[in-house]
Structure of Hydrolase:
Amino acid sequence: MEVITLNQPKNGSQNISSQFRSDMVMVPEVINEASGIRVFGRTLKSFVFTTDVATILYCNADAVLAVYPFSPHPAIISAVTSVASQPVFAGVGGGTTQGKRSVDIALFAEATGVQGVVVNAPMTAENILDIEHTVDSPIVATVVSAYNDIDARISAGADILNVSGGKETAAIVERIRRDFPDVPIIATGGQNEDTIRKVIEAGANAVSWTPPTTGEIFKEKMVKYRKDRREDFLEAHDGMTLREFEEYIEEHPEAEEKYSEDSSDGYL
């Protein structure tokens, strides 16, 4: 039976955790400074930008931004929605995929339970309008430059703007907020608290955050595992490293039996 532990966080709210979810992928705390976007009665501040199902399952983000640099595919949408406990906003095209194909994928995405559909920057206002006439889900329109025709996208049915402008993101958000004071904005926040806070201060209501890759997480774990293994060996062999121990046994072969008996986890 899974052991449940109750921890008391700094803000006073109660936090339920477990021994098997101790390695959660946690979004930066600074994102909580955002005002959030209320979608169907739920306030969303953090969007994890990934389609990695393992990361999605073990991430505490408020929502998933399932957008990727390939043509959208129903199988990917199904995979993400099958594991996500949080709302999913799925990419339905805009670059390679447009027209009726995007409309069909948007309808499929809604049928599988996504909370919103995301259209990429190249998608035309006419295509956005077609999606608006087909699905009930909120449409998130990606903005990559101040030169995007934002007014046309909003008029066509975009409910939320997703700003991804690289180092210019904060400036683009500030410009949009100036011209469209009431439009909900998600913005990429970068990897550190300073860049996240900048887009929030510029007017972003929510932040999309790119989590570390599974390779990066594995790297950290392997460093720890190697360190723990070495420390266990030193403790079991009177502080000797593996090389020192081998040299010691060469000089004192009679001691090998002693260490073999003392070792309970197969060092020898």
Notes: The chain has two domains: 24-211, 216-262.
